[in-house]
Amino acid sequence: MTKIRAAITGVQGYVPDYVLTNEELSTMVDTTDEWIMTRTGIKERRILKGEGLGTSFMGAKAVQGLLEKTNTDPMDIDLLICSTTTPDMVFPATANLIANEVGAKKAFNYDMQAACSGFLYALYTAAQFIETGAYKKIVVVGADKMSSIIDYTDRTTCVIFGDGAGAVLLEPDQEGFGIQDAVMQSDGAGWVHLHQKAGGSRRPPTAETVQNREHFVYQEGKHVFKHAVENMGAVVLDVMKRNDLTADTIHWLNPHQANRRIVDATAKRMGLDTGVDSEKVMMTIHKYGNTTNGTIPLNLWNYEPQLKKGDNTILAAFGGGFTWGAIYLKWAYDGK
Ligand code: UT7
């Protein structure tokens, strides 16, 4: 029998309306459009405004749109995984809230936490349920309201992050399309360089932790940058080698959008020419910034019209944990 693979059969994104530009940020902290553009490639990012709106609001919008677009009855969804670093609440899972909102009442659902690599971890986990034949329709949604954990007095982090969500539908494929291979890794020793100091069980919230601004992203940028370039490049090369892929036979690199310079370094290690081949590299960082779990599905959503059935696509990410990985898939449908 032909192997069952998990194929992405639909994609949808959601970004909030409010556009936070580099110009506006430069009125809030000591920074400039020039610094942000040269060091990161970010021009603007979206921010979710509105009392009581959390990550599930954006996730539900993306999933709702996905179900409509793919003519999927929410009651046919078997499993919904939400990858997020900014859950609405410590519990219950944001996936539970999203599934309830969209009417996926028969689905089993849970959250996945792997910081910026969360969407890849969730996608690869979901793929196992399809490959074993256990489930037929799975939604994976990556969503983050990063603005809820960003210190807008810290110029080293506040210029980078934005809010957004993207969702994909996974279904079985027996024609050779879908997820072919993956290399996923993590190293918990990296936690010291990128984390949120308080709010978890180790340091529960107190008036003091709030006063000390410990509920925001803490990042040692240079250190994370170095590890991101090294490790993301390494897993991408590994997955290429294992599958006899070359720069010529790859149609798309869909990299996590943390910093344009990290993406360029990864593309270069793959042998992609930054001139002519830059069209093979999905980029949305200039308009959304780093939406953490949202970046990879938002890339797919933005590039969907250009994707063709059979396109060799590599998804790659690096994030807090440290976590990182690369997935190789053959795109399963013509995007137009
Ligand atoms: O997505 C999850 C994983 N995260 C990442 O992959 C992020 C990886 N790190 C990065 O992308 C980069 O390290 C940053 C964009 C965060 C920072 O860029 P950098 O080139 O590494 O800058 P830096 O931290 O080394 O800072 C260089 C200078 C410093 O000034 P001095 O000490 O040289 O005088 C900073 O204070 O730039 C200064 N600086 C800024 N200046 C203007 C830092 N942030 C800003 C800013 N505007 N926003």
Map the helices and strands.
Layout: E1 5-14, E2 18-21, H1 22-28, H2 33-40, E3 44-47, H3 55-69, E4 79-83, H4 94-102, E5 108-112, H5 118-131, E6 138-145, H6 155-158, E7 163-173, E8 178-186, E9 194-196, H7 207-211, E10 217-219, H8 221-242, E11 252-255, H9 260-269, H10 285-288, H11 295-303, E12 312-319, E13 323-330
Parallel strand pairs: 4-5, 4-6, 11-12
Antiparallel strand pairs: 1-7, 2-3, 6-7, 8-13, 9-10, 12-13
User: What's the N-to-C terminus distance?
Assistant: 31 Å
CATH architecture of the largest domain: 3-Layer(aba) Sandwich
What Rg do the Cα atoms give? 19 Å
Number of domains: 2
Short description:
The protein is α/β, with parallel strands linked by helices and 336 residues long. The site of oxa(dethia)-CoA has 21 residues, from helix 2, helix 6, helix 8 and strand 12.
Can you offer a commentary on this structure?
The chain is an alpha/beta fold and 336 residues long. The chain has helices at 22-28, 33-40, 55-69, 94-102, 118-131, 155-158, 207-211, 221-242, 260-269, 285-288, 295-303; strands at 5-14, 18-21, 44-47, 79-83, 108-112, 138-145, 163-173, 178-186, 194-196, 217-219, 252-255, 312-319, 323-330. It folds into 2 domains: 5-177, Thiolase/Chalcone synthase (Peroxisomal Thiolase, Chain A, domain 1), CATH 3.40.47; 180-330, Thiolase/Chalcone synthase (Peroxisomal Thiolase, Chain A, domain 1). Helices cover 32% and strands 24% of the residues. β12 (312-319) and β13 (323-330) form a beta hairpin. The model has no long low-confidence stretch (mean pLDDT 97).
Which keywords apply here?
336 residues; alpha/beta; Peroxisomal Thiolase, Chain A, domain 1; four-stranded mixed sheet; binds oxa(dethia)-CoA
